[in-house]
Amino acid sequence: MSDVADKVEKLSVKDNKGQNKKKEKKQSQESSSPLYLDPQPAFLEERIKLFEELKAKYDAEIAAKEKKPIKITLKDGSVKEGTSYETSPMDIANSIGKSFAERQVISKVNGKLWDMPRPLEEDVTLEFLDFEHPEGKAVFWHSSAHILGESCECHYGCHLSHGPPTDDGFFYDMSINDGTTFVNQADFGSLETIATKAIKEKQKFERLEMTKEDLLKMFSYNKYKVQFISDKIPDGTSTTVYRCGPLIDLCVGPHIPHSGRIKAFKVLKNSSSYFLGDAKNDSLQRVYGISFPDKKLMTAHLQFLKEASERDHRKIGREQELFYFSDVSPGSAIWLPHGTRIYNTLVETLRYEYRKRGYEEVITPNMFSTKLWETSGHWQNYKENMFSFEVEKETYGLKPMNCLSEDMRIQTDKGFKFLSEIESNWKDVNFATYDPESKSIKYAKASNFIVKDSANHKMVEFANYDIAQSDDGVSLLVTEDHDMYVQQNGGEFSKVPARELLQKEAEFGFLAVDESSSFTKTSLNSKTEIKAVGDYNGRVWCVTVPTGLIIAHRVHRGADGNVIRSSKPIVIGNCPGHCILFKSRERSYRELPWRVADFGVLHRNEFSGALSGLTRVRRFQQDDAHIFCTPDQIGTEIAGVFDLLKKMYDIFGFEFKMELSTRPEKYVGDIETWNAAEKKLEGALDEFLGKGKWELNPGDGAFYGPKIDIMISDALRRWFQCATIQLDFQLPSRFELEYRSESNSATERPVMIHRAILGSVERMTAILTEHYKGKWPFWLSPRQILIVPVSPKYYDYAEKLKKIFNDEHFFYCDVDVSGNTLPKKVRSGQLMQYNFIFIVGAEEEENYGVNIRNRDIPEEQGKNPMVSVDSVIQSMLKLREEKRSDNKL
User: Fold this and answer.
1) Domain-embedded: residue 328
2) Binning pLDDT at 50, 70 and 90, where does residue 224 land?
3) Same domain, 107 and 177
4) Which spans does this entry mark as compositional bias, Basic and acidic residues (predicted)?
5) Residue 490: its pLDDT value, please?
6) Is the pLDDT of residue 114 over 50?
């Protein structure tokens, strides 16, 4: 073996015979293949040889650079002295303190992520990010992905495709033996062993800029890299690679200083994928992993994953026979009797509150003519998400639920930025590109483009769509009717409906970026890839260009800066129907506020690949309500909604937080109305939560009104958005709604408040299932009482009690008359999470009593004192009425 090959062997193996013999023996028992492929692939030697040649030249160029004094301004305003092309962020971190430097994952130089060991070149501002920072975590997991790639190359001799970080770890795609070999779980231990060795070696992440020609030479063995290089890197330009140990990969970085920063590493799972997400391309193997800078964090994460798996509503729903899904109606839950009990209880609880709070419930049609949807604006903007059909030559659509929570962002050298954060007059541009060479954002104006300005919830419209004018490498355009113009293989543009593009899994597609990655491009050609890359709510809007990327997708950024991936019911399909009701006759100011509620069935034409349990469905019901009021009544009505919200969330045991989003740059209505409305919302929030206890998102409101978003936290501290409160100045205008004013001589336009507390009943049921872990509180439980007679002799007594409980007091009670033993009957009842198991025998029948086993008091599962039936009934009635979360009688 040559010298370079010897280096590869030393870097990747480090035999340490005595120390590692037991581990390697264990691995050989778990996996049929050796720990390291023998011999190692020839491309490792050739790749390292070229890298070292070019790195030596690069180091010589840096050494020859003129060294000048530079000033380094830290985040706290202090200034450090340094020397250009010598002083690195690592040097500055070490000057602050060794322990401080060890905790830092990455640095930011002039707002741009920068490798800690990389020398600074000029006067800069400098800050450091640790693992707790979202960008620091993304870099940490990106570097960990490279360690995983190294392990896979050493173990399989595979050809790597790409390996980005994700929201909860990282993965690497690869082809093994031209797609003839597959990853299996028995390999995980081997991959972890190799990764552990690489981590102990503290392999440096070395950055090197290379020309396109040299890159094609280095990766000539790998057709996937060759395609990336050929398609993404313009001729005559360059990009970077990073090396750690024997791995050298095409990557813009940056990375952690060395692999030793990784203290815990684990391979989690594997799956298959398609290169570029296209089913017509090669099938690849995907391996997922997770890593942390502290072993305690790994232990906690694995425990979290285990707990989350045990709480999965799909698992519990199946075990408790609550609901199921059928291929004959994908995305539409079939509610079984016990699940229906939960569903109805949630709805009836809200109905009870509605009656107390002056809401009037209505029932509106499931389908309307497209004339209605055109008036409301749904048809122009959301028809692809609606189920539509023709009746007597007229087109109708089922009531949809629409989410206006898209935010448009562009990736810059300072990370992802919302367009509202970028200094430019967005209304005058078609598209924006980021040029990494000039480190600037460029805007172009051309009448042939139209894109979704989702930050303001409007389309940026232009006179025509003359696609022939495009010469900027744009590969996808979105028109106002949601059709897409797609450029296939650099050829002519053609118009393809968005839905058709995904469902047919065409050769062309569009690109998305993992928000935590640094210029990591992911193709989403097929509907199946959407879920694999990340939950984009079934739709991704983006425009790609040769040097940068603009992307918009449905996300919501919480107060803590984290992205909450959830549907936001801001504009719900019942609104147009309620507008019709308001307009059905003349209205007077004396009737306002008019609070109207509707549990109508809604539909959303989701892609099949995006469907998931009860959280992503096609058919569902919202606890949808609208309040029509005068501007003066806004504050009082919002306070009333807050009271209802707190009442419901306190019952469920949810912690919640609230955010106010105010007037965007583009809006409808007059500014005085907006200002007054926002002031009232601020006042209501202050009174409800207290000053400083809610978040303000300036300019993030919908174009038709300010909104308040409410996030809830479940038992696992996961945040979800279900409730929303949205002021709407647009729909009353679209439907020309009016009421007779107090003067009786003029009419005025009402303000419309959209509000939902549960969101969809389906999604809330999923959240509650996981929140309670299937241990339903008595008031909501579908299985409240199980009566277990000790022998057939007492079946009649058990049935008598069941009739009293069910028929007279409307509890949910069952009797176990199976042939199982008494202990097995009790155990079966416990597994099905009955709140109470009543054991009945001779003593109980004689004294008209029961012997109680309480689900939530394990220490009292044996023989307990008998309790009278009348006393138990009163205790259970009180428990149900109070809607307590505990299970104490």
Assistant:
1) no
2) very high
3) no
4) 1-18
5) 39
6) yes
Task: Return mean pLDDT, the chain.
Answer: 79
Following DSSP, what letter does each residue of 699-720 receive, concatenated?
A: T-SBTTB-EEEEEEE-TT--EE
**β-strands 388-391, 601-603: how paired?**
unpaired
- Residues 58 and 69 occupy one common structural domain: no
**Which domain range does residue 459 map to?**
406-554
Cβ-contact 31, 190 below 8 angstroms: yes
Are 474 and 543 a contacting pair, CB within 8 Å? yes
Check whether 887 has a pLDDT greater than 80: yes
Print burial letters for 238-265: b (CB count within 10 Å at least 16), e (below 16).
ebebbbbbbbbbbbbbbbbbbbebbebb
| Across 354-361, average pLDDT | 96
The DSSP symbol for 818 reads S
Check which CATH number belongs to the domain holding 102 and give it: 3.10.20.30
Beta bridge partners of 453: 458
The most confident of the ranges 249-263, 264-278, 593-607 is: 249-263
- Alpha helix positions (H), 253-393: 295-311, 313-319, 337-356, 370-376, 378-382
Angle between helices 761-772 and 337-356 (to 10 degrees): 110
Question: Do 57 and 71 share a structural domain?
Answer: no
Q: Is the dihedral of CA 486, 489, 493, 494 positive or negative?
A: negative
**Six-digit token string for 555:** 């996300």
CA distance 341 to 761: 12
Q: Which residues contact 693 (CB under 8 A, 6 or more apart)?
A: none
Domain assignment of residue 673, yes or no:
yes
Which residue would you say has higher pLDDT here, 730 or 92?
92
Same domain, 746 and 632: yes
CATH number for 150: 3.30.980.10
- The encoded tokens of residue 619 equal 């058919």
246: left (phi over 0), alpha (psi -120 to 50) or beta: alpha
| pLDDT value, residue 734 | 83
Three-state SS at 328: coil
The total number of structural domains in the chain stands at 6
Specify the pLDDT at position 381.
Answer: 58
- 192 and 278 in one domain? yes
Q: Give the domain CATH number at 859.
A: 3.40.50.800
Q: Is residue 417 located within the same domain as residue 488?
A: yes
- Which of 495, 522, 554 lies at the terminal end of a domain, its last residue? 554
- Quick: pLDDT tens for 832-842: 999 999 999 99
| pLDDT per position as a tens digit, 62-111 | 999 999 999 999 999 999 999 999 999 999 999 999 999 999 999 999 99
**The token pair that represents 731 in the structure block:** 């729909």
Q: Are residues 395 and 416 in the same domain?
A: no
Does residue 737 lie in a domain region?
yes
Tell which of 278, 295, 312 closes a domain: 295
> Strand ranges (DSSP E) for 78-143?
79-83, 104-109, 112-114, 124-130
pLDDT tens-digit map of 381-417 = 566 677 888 888 888 888 876 433 223 333 334 443 4
For residue 446, the model assigns a pLDDT of 30
Mean pLDDT, residues 154-161 taken together:
96
Lowest model confidence (mean pLDDT) among 53-67, 75-89, 593-607: 593-607
178: left (phi over 0), alpha (psi -120 to 50) or beta: left
Residues 765 and 670 in one domain: yes
143 alpha-carbon distance from chain centroid: 22
**Does 161 map to a domain?**
yes
